[in-house]
Amino acid sequence: MEQKKARAADESVRLICDDALTEVFRRLPARTLAACRLVCKSWMSVLSDPHFIHEHLCLVQKKLLFFANDRVHDRSLAMVFADDKESMYHVSRPMASRSIFVHNSCNGILCLGDSTGAVELLNPTTSESLVLPTPMYTAGSSQFSSRSEELKMACTELDIPFSTHTFTESIVPLRKDYFMKLRIQDMDFWHELEDSTPVTRVLSVNKTGKDVDFQQELEVN
Amino acid sequence: MAAPESGDGNNGAARMVTLISSDNTRFEVEAAAASLSQTLQLTILDGGGGGGDGIPLPNVDSATLSKVLEYCIKHAPAAANGGAPNATAVDRAELERFDNEFVNIDQSVLYSLIMAAHNLEIEGLQSLVAKKVADMIKGKSPMEIRRTLGFPDPTPEEQAEMNAHMLEYGWAYE
């Protein structure tokens, strides 16, 4: 009986047409949509539709990204302050290499690099990542083309062997309280990070160019 | 808005229209309420649905239609006022209370409502039910969403696909 009831409900949930589903998805933060993609194939197909993604992106323009290496816990943190003033989520994953830094970001996608010259694109919302083919790059810059709805990357390739190249980013000596507060411009609030989150290098950028420059914050301190 | 010549003058009885559900039940309702549906509005403005004719709605069964009309009747006066100017805080609070109660229903009814609101293009009802479903799944994991919405247990294939994804991106859902 119980089984039968569940089946009936299942059929009705599957009867909802894609347009009506879109109405539901429009109201959800990107993080929940990432989970929704795994619910079933038809949901995945609705949520992978470039038009829907573009529309949802326009609805939630206020997006601020933040990336940090957490040496103590041997992990990388990527955070998104997004969708509205209240929601914030972060991805924490094992640190793949000793020093990952942000080359650039746009439209919620982070372009990461590491000391081996590898370049990776990371979407902190869905946690999908794409490692670009090596050889190494010195710098990457990414730009979103709204006309073709494509993310374009420009990279400079190094001719010289890696061993002769040194990266100049200095590791900022840490004091825990440097990173306790994050001020977000134009949003007028301070966000308290977990106090056990000492980080070594931080860079954040957001789509609309309202950057939060941690280096400056540090110098002020 | 110019009243049609058949006249639903302010003094007389409001103009009524008849809607016929897929299972042939007839519902008589004020034209103003039925006009919340963009789909029906044109037909009604053309003078349809009156008298013995009725407007057939082959996609909506009687149980769902009566629920839809309950919403329309409640919201028609506010919609006629254009919402803001005459609506008092009390009225708005009352509507809000009604809306909250209204979507507190069995899931299969909710899903039928979504489709009916979509087919009939009733904007307020569309966003009300979409918001309800969105609230049900917000912040949940894929499996929790499946359970909440009453999907059956995943087939072994689906489960394998999900596991493969979680293996790769599992840390994202911690």
Automatic annotation (TrEMBL), chain A:
Stored InterPro entries: F-box-like_dom_sf, F-box_dom, SCF_F-box_component
SMART domains, sorted: FBOX (SM00256)
Domain F-box positions: 16-56
A Pfam family hit: F-box
Name assigned to this protein: F-box domain-containing protein
Gene: gb22773
Automatic annotation (TrEMBL), chain B:
Gene Ontology annotations of biological process type: jasmonic acid mediated signaling pathway; protein ubiquitination; ubiquitin-dependent protein catabolic process
PANTHER family for the chain: SKP1
Species, as recorded: Eleusine coracana subsp. coracana
Endoplasmic reticulum among keywords: no
Pathway(s) this gene product operates in, as recorded in its UniProt entry: Protein modification; protein ubiquitination
Family: Belongs to the SKP1 family.
Gene transcribed to yield this protein: ga14711
Keyword annotations from UniProtKB, A to Z: Ubl conjugation pathway
Protein name: SKP1-like protein
